[in-house]
């Protein structure tokens, strides 16, 4: 398994311009092909949906359960001690872009399923390991999948943290647009309400808190020009990603920001939005995943919420589940992204048990 993960990490699968038969670029396509060929080597049937997304499958039945991860990665950036696509292994720690997010975990799911196949355990449902290709830049892969395949009965994405996550915050990107001829007013608004303010959005009146989901958080600020975004000539814009808790709608958020921006002559629009995700903590699926985590690790598996955003935003019936353990933060998307080989093995054990439990629910 570790050898396979290193091999997949060595493929630079940052999204590139589309080519023939490569909607997300040749690197992402190469990573998908390798994941599917590895699946066939392990004895699974595979399906490739036009290089948008693919999956390995095992077992029979109209209904299926799944683990859905992704093989695309964010750009490596600077600050690496070793080349980011080398799959460098030292003292039991594997380094590389995609080791954690998400090539290591999705292959841990695949090898977990291989263990079930080897054990010949009877399953009530088909099991799929789905390899996404556009998780980092837009979920177009998942939209393509859901146009052609029905959603799973149960499932999880190994692209977040443990214990099982029953709720995700909403994720919205808002854009304030002004005139390049009125830069002083534009920058005053940006500095007062974003750069020089708390990330909770207190000055905008959107500092909403929820007892389970926590406080609103603004981040990933971006400045640009209209020409850069095919927008209005002579315009400038400022974008912010908002991680917002349950209890407020994106419409309410926009109304409050627009009320502040109007005094500066700025227009505020919505670039993207995914509503909060909420599952019943006592549901059979959430409880089964909790028990799998507790059985393998011996740790408290009380379900939690997350500020992050995963495929659970767009794939019905799934929750985030692993791969990071409590205390492991700030690893994905950063230089020297890592996972220990011991944690990868533990993940494979948890995922094997989880796929089995979901397949017999």
Layout of SSEs?
Blueprint: H1 2-9, H2 26-41, E1 45-49, E2 53-58, E3 64-70, E4 88-90, E5 93-95, H3 99-119, E6 126-132, H4 140-148, E7 154-157, E8 160-161, E9 165-168, E10 170-179, H5 183-195, E11 209-210, E12 214-215, E13 217-225, E14 235-244, H6 250-261, E15 267-274, E16 277-278, H7 284-297, E17 304-306, E18 318-320, E19 323-324, E20 338-340, H8 341-359
What does this 3D model show about the protein?
The structure is a single chain. The protein has 361 residues and is of the alpha/beta class. 31% of the residues lie in helices and 26% in strands. The protein contains eight helices and 20 strands. The chain has helices at residues 2-9, 26-41, 99-119, 140-148, 183-195, 250-261, 284-297, 341-359; strands at 45-49, 53-58, 64-70, 88-90, 93-95, 126-132, 154-157, 160-161, 165-168, 170-179, 209-210, 214-215, 217-225, 235-244, 267-274, 277-278, 304-306, 318-320, 323-324, 338-340. The protein has a six-stranded mixed β-sheet, sandwiched between helices. A four-stranded antiparallel β-sheet has the order 13-14-10-15. A three-stranded antiparallel β-sheet has the order 4-5-20. The mean pLDDT is 95.
